[in-house]
Design goal:
The protein has strands spanning 10-15, 22-29, 44-55, 58-73, 76-91, 94-104, 122-134, 137-149, 155-170, 173-185, 189-201. By secondary structure, the protein is mainly β. It has an eleven-stranded antiparallel beta sheet, with no helix packed on it. Strand 8 (137-149) and strand 9 (155-170) form a beta hairpin. The protein is globular, with a radius of gyration of 20 Å.
Length: 203
């Protein structure tokens, strides 16, 4: 599985052998709860299809995955679903990535795909990223956007632009400089600029 590894208990998973670059994975998971008193009579089902291929000097990767579950409490039943996918193309020192998702009845905060919401909560988003690597340098540009419809009329929007530079000093040390511009529209637009300097140390 790719996106949905946050379930508490994995009941069963299966991944096929590599079939000319294709692989299929399915999983049966412990479902997420809608509330403390909610009941989940069926497990959470997850699936993923991936493809990896090399074409001369170009490497290509793609995936599509999904999740579905149902949860019921005194307020009613919520059927939660998500579908997402992405592609990556690499050639020379260039790598291009694009991914997107669409959810219904899942958390309206980025990354909380196990938080059961209401069926009126729908979100769609995408991420575009490009990078170029040469010698000890790697430069990355990215843009992401998410729109969340919480009640059928109110739409929230989150957007982020980022620029990053990675300089590899040696196999154990990489220096990082990053700039992020985030825009949040929850009725009023809020803009934030973040600058960061750091290092990645591995042993």
């Amino acid at each position: 599985m790719r996106q949905y590894k946050h379930s508490q208990v994995v009941w069963a998973t299966y991944r096929t052998p590599d079939l000319s670059g294709f692989q299929i994975a399915v999983g049966v998971m412990d479902p997420s709860k809608k509330s403390a008193n909610s009941s989940e009579h069926s497990p959470r089902f997850e699936s993923e299809i991936t493809y990896t291929g090399d074409f001369d000097a170009v490497d290509f990767k793609a995936y599509i995955n999904g999740v579905t579950q149902s949860s019921k409490d005194s307020y009613g039943t919520v059927d939660s679903d998500c579908l997402d996918g992405g592609v990556r193309v690499g050639f020379g020192g260039v790598a291009l990535n694009a991914s997107g998702f669409s959810t219904k009845g899942l958390g309206d905060v980025a990354g909380l795909d196990t938080i059961v919401s209401t069926e009126k909560t729908k979100s769609d988003g995408y991420l575009l990223q490009g990078s170029y690597t040469f010698d000890s340098e790697r430069f990355v540009l990215s843009y992401g956007n998410t729109e969340v419809d919480t009640d059928g009329t109110n739409t929230l929007e989150y957007a982020n632009k980022a620029v990053a530079w990675f300089h590899t000093v040696n196999s154990n040390l990489t220096l990082v400089a990053e700039y992020n511009r985030t825009e949040v529209n929850e009725g009023n637009t809020e803009k934030n600029n973040t600058y960061a300097l750091g290092a990645v140390v591995t042993f």
